[in-house]
Amino acid sequence: MKKIGLDVGEKTIGVAISDALGMTAQGIKTIHWTEDDYSIAREALTPIIEKEMITEAVIGYPKNMNGTIGPRAEQSERFAKWLEKNFDLTVHLWDERLTTMAAERVLLDADVSRNKRKKVVDKMAAVMILQGFLDASQ
User: Fold this and answer.
1) Rama region for 73: left / alpha / beta (φ>0; ψ in -120 to 50; rest)
2) pLDDT value of position 118
3) Coil, strand, or helix at residue 11?
4) What ranges do the domains of the chain cover?
5) What are the subcellular locations of this protein (predicted)?
6) How far apart (Å, rounded) are the C-alpha atoms in residues 55 and 4?
C-alpha cells in the first residue's frame, strides 16, 4: 500500500511517494500550479495516484511555531478535503513546521547550487513530510 506525500505551497506542490512496504519516501516531482486552481493539481496527481496505486496521502500541515493554525494550514486543510473527496484516499495532515528549512539545510550541506535548490526544495520537503509520517507509523 503506497502513500503519497505532498508539500502544498502557493505556487508549487512537492510530491513524494513511499515504497510498497511503507518504509522509505522518494521525491518524484514538483508540480507548478496557481493556488486554488485544483484542475492543475488533478491533472498532475491523477496519473501518479493511479499508476502507483496510492491508498493514502500525507499533506504537510504548516502550523505556526506556537501550534496555532494560520492561513497556510487552513489552505492545507482545504487541499486535504479536496484530495480525499476527489481521489477517495485516506488523508493525513502532518505537522511540517521547519520542514522546508530543514530541506534547504540538507541541500546547502550537500553543496547544491542556489538554482538547483529552488528546483528541488519542495520535492525534498515532501520527502521529509512523508518520511516523518512513515517513521512515526512503524
Assistant:
1) alpha
2) 65
3) coil
4) 2-137
5) Cytoplasm
6) 8
